[in-house]
Amino acid sequence: MPENNLPGLLPPDLVDEPPGVLRRRVGDAESRRANRRWWDADADDYQAEHGAFLGDVDFVWCPEGLREADARLLGELPGRRVLELGCGAASAARWLATEGARPVGLDLSAGMLRHAARGAATSGVRVPLVQADALALPFRAGSFDIVCTAFGAIPFVADSAAALREVFRVLRPGGRWVFSVTHPMRWIFLDDPGEGGLTAVHSYFDRRPYVEQDEAGTPSYVEQHRTLGDRVREIVGAGFVLRDVVEPEWPAGHEQVWGQWSPLRGRLFPGTAIFVCDKPDSVSDKPDGESVRHRSGSVC
User: Fold this and answer.
1) How far is Cα 74 from Cα 198, in angstroms, rounded to an integer?
2) Containing H/E element for 107?
């Protein structure tokens, strides 16, 4: 565990992390290998645990249950060419197809794409599926009107700024980019849905990723941390205009626990951040003081 002596943080010897879990630097190649193996191996268990919540044909942005059918963060869909990045079982891509869009689902994991193919067979809604790396999208510049992802790809690549530049490349001018990730402030806390997850134990400014590794020190799972400011700088640095940041509130009556997301924590502080971005129509289309809005659950 990283050392910390900041006021309000627990000393390292009181931070209860499972064996094999730590925070350390991991490069892109090592992160890619670890996460591909993880999602290939975990695909069946993940779908068994979360498949019913995500649905066969539905677009759920986050564990808080915010749906694109209600939020409409992507704008008009009929006829739009849409890339779902890190699509997993591709339930969102299938929902987009039912809305008249022309979606493509892309994921690094063959295991998750296997479930995407099963979902197509079960639902009767079929979309093209591509296995590829988010850092090297196999599409020509300007191929899509919209790129989106719900917790896919971006948290799992070491160079997320490069991933955003790839998204910018494959979007047409005027296109939209929307992605959801774990809210950056959640990294202060342990992944505990109960009272243990209400005490700050980590520095918000420690950008080292969360790493699970085996006894030989080989990473088996890697998830990256960026501060809110880091995300904004990556978005603007890639050339996008940031239009909105949505922090879904925990809805009344929603009692389902998903990992570290729970009603207890969700009613106190945000668990998800959704960034809504546009690619300018031209290089002269620059953001102004009214370009960025910030909402806290206003679309739930």
Assistant:
1) 33
2) strand 102-107
Name the residue among 180, 121, 174 with its Cα closest to residue 283.
174
Residues contacting 33, CB < 8 A, separation 6+? 219
pLDDT digits (tens, 9 = 90+) for 195-209: 999 999 999 999 999
Residue 274's nearest CA partner among 172, 148, 166, 164 is 148
Percent of the chain with pLDDT over 70: 87
Integer Cα distance of 68 and 58 in angstroms: 8
d(CA 267, CA 7): 25
The position carrying tokens 């998750």 is 112
Tell me the C-alpha distance between 298 and 296, whole Å. 6
Cβ proximity of 23 and 209 under 8 Å: yes
Distance, in Å, from the CA atom of 62 to the CA atom of 67, rounded to the nearest integer, reads: 8
| Crossing angle for the helix pair 160-170 and 228-238, to the nearest 10 degrees | 40
CA dist., res. 255 & res. 288, Å (int): 40
**231 and 180 in contact (C-beta within 8 Å)?**
no
- pLDDT single digits (tens) 159-180: 999 999 999 999 999 999 999 9
| Alpha carbons 285 and 265: distance in angstroms, whole number | 40
